[in-house]
Automatic annotation (TrEMBL):
This is PAS domain-containing protein. It comes from Anoxybacterium hadale. It comes from the Bacteria.
Amino acid sequence: MANGKNALSDLSIDELIPILDSISDAIFIDDAQGFTIWINKASEELYKIKRKDIIGKHVSFLESEGIFTPSVARLVMEQKKEITIIHENKDGKRLLTTGIPIVDAKNKMSKIITTTHDITELINLQNELESVQNKLSGLNAQEGFSDIIANSPSMYNVIQLTRRLSDVDSTVLITGESGVGKGVIAKLVHENGNRKEFPFVKINCGAIPENLIESELFGYESGAFTGSRKNGKKGLFETAEKGTIFLDEISELPLNLQVKLLQVIQEREITRVGGVESIPINVRIISATNRDLLALVRQGKFREDLYYRLNVVPISIPPLRERPEDIIPMIRIFLNQNNKKMKEHKEIDSKAIAILMKYPWPGNVRELQNIIERLMITTKGTNIHPENLPSFIIESASIPEPAASAEGKSLKEALDHAEREILLKAAEKHKTTRAIAKVLGVSQPTVVRKLQKYHLTEKVEISDL
């Protein structure tokens, strides 16, 4: 019996072709110059082509026709080595393609064998698995906190702290820029704690005239001042009994009332305006500000002793520009909310999303929410395109970022700069996040998070995020 090597060499072309045609993976054979010599039946089915139309065609022609992009054979010709990539065909199927150079006796490349395997179903299963895992981890981490997006590590940490604070009765100070969601976090603390069955009372300390805020907070007795009710009135501290009082814009509280608030926190009782009797109270106090209270303390505009009483446990909410991972999910949620409210079916173009990702959002979540509502109203048709965006957002996105250098930067800044450059180069070469993840040796969710962090989402297909 002939050995395996001789038996294989005895096979004729006519005998090999049926074998290659029976293989489920697509097979392309090109010569060293990139002209197609032969393809199998699986290639015809996968790329929707005919063998007779492809044989003799150059890889550049096949690329220009969009049969595959990029051509792995061309990459092998350029780099003179085995190449493996993940890409898509015309139908959007995900393909794993490997190109292998075949060399002759003189070590010169004579042919290129390219094999392609359809991995669409595998990727879909992987996406489903990741989705289930993300939902499970989300349920574990954020049960009862569905009102807030926390895809970014910084907001995830905020949610974790909020959960822990819900179980205790400590005084909380929430800080952050205007529009980041300080009121939402305050309500979450209340609604997930043991006071949730009792009132949540909010007061904006900067919205009430100075001569009225004391009576609003602490109430007044009959005849306390001209125009007062005959039987007096409960203040908000009494109204919030057994519940939570949320003092928003606490930095705007007048100094004379800061003294009174300090006494309330220390003694757990209030005295109505015009009254002499002390009324015991049982409330949790949460305050919030968009200003630097410690700086106000140094300037003599805020009492130091009150600051430390309020700041028992601080929650700092990062601005939206520092948590880009949260922007796309917020856009989707606000879009769905407005579609439901307005009985519309509008979608937002991936290029428009890329521009919104570049905008710094000085008004934070509130501004994003308002912009989406505005786009829903002002956009004709069912698709929101870049031209539908407000001019100030488009102009902001078109301003080039200054050239970055590691010189004069902290170690973290230098590492961030280097990471961004690596991602940028990978995104320019590979147009899907999964391909980038494979090249960089990290998970696909990590690539998505990093692309959003560095505002590079326009470099890949948004549907792939």
